[in-house]
Amino acid sequence: MPDRAAFGWDETLYAGSAAYYAVGRMSYPPTVADVLRTELGLDGNGRLLDVGCGPGSLTLLLAPLFSTVVGIDADRDMLRQADRAARQAGIGNVHWQRSRAEELPAGLGTFDVVTFAQSFHWFDRPRVARAVRPMLGADGVWVHVSATTHRGVEGADPLPYPRPPHDGIDALVARYLGPVRRAGRGVLPGGTPGGEEEVMRAAGYHGPRRLEVGGGAVRERTEDEVVASVFSLSYAAPHLFADRRPEFERDLRLLLRTASPGGRFAERTREVGLVLWRPWPLAESATGA
């Protein structure tokens, strides 16, 4: 399976998904900020860079822990959603910049924390990891946030409402778009790339320290939110359905109403993984330490 680096950035990857992303993805639990505050000694000072920030879901959660925050993303619509959310929340210490991760350091300076939330796998990972390393201060930390926010944990335990029929949704997407996972103009037959630890160590980082946060909370969701969660996915972005999108949405809503005639659903949230890496001092890395 090719790495994203093999075919470069595709501006259609999340085309049309930004507004759906903000509605359909379950928010990160506040404990993510609490754990990072304690773990990293964050006190409202310092600088944060969120790479591949999307609509600012993580950026805005962490913004109160820093004096200056920069969120970058290559998708203009995602940044518009992020800016709108920041204004609505009254958060004024965030600067949004349209930029690819591969363009770093992009004159942005140094940071105390650099985060990648469900985004690193889309980039030229060796190149980005090397570019970020000198952007981290002496005690700087890279935080990889691993999460699944479009769907909860499967299970048979009783909930206030039925769980969304995720297997049926996946089958419906495959019926319209084919069995091979789509990604913008391309396909990902083997899914997104792994081997993150090897990439990070080769780029001069040590660790990782792994933390698990949250999980198990019951979230109630509406039919519209579940529909939005589907269109928020790279492999089910609205543009992929072309002129069949209304037909797909009609069939999707029929599937959901069959599962829950009242249009209400419930899920248990998944844990969020925080993977912390620190760069070796440049002199040590150069000597192979």
Automatic annotation (TrEMBL):
GO molecular function: methyltransferase activity
Domain of life: Bacteria
InterPro entries (alphabetical): Diverse_substrate_MTase, Methyltransf_25, SAM-dependent_MTases_sf
Record-linked Pfam families: Methyltransf_25
Gene3D superfamilies for this protein: Vaccinia Virus protein VP39
GO biological process: methylation
Stretches assigned to the Methyltransferase domain: 49-134
SUPFAM superfamilies: S-adenosyl-L-methionine-dependent methyltransferases
Keyword tags: Methyltransferase, Transferase
PANTHER family attached to this UniProt entry: METHYLTRANSF_11 DOMAIN-CONTAINING PROTEIN, METHYLTRANSFERASE TYPE 11 DOMAIN-CONTAINING PROTEIN
Name of protein: Methyltransferase
Organism taxonomic ancestry: Bacteria, Bacillati, Actinomycetota, Actinomycetes, Micromonosporales
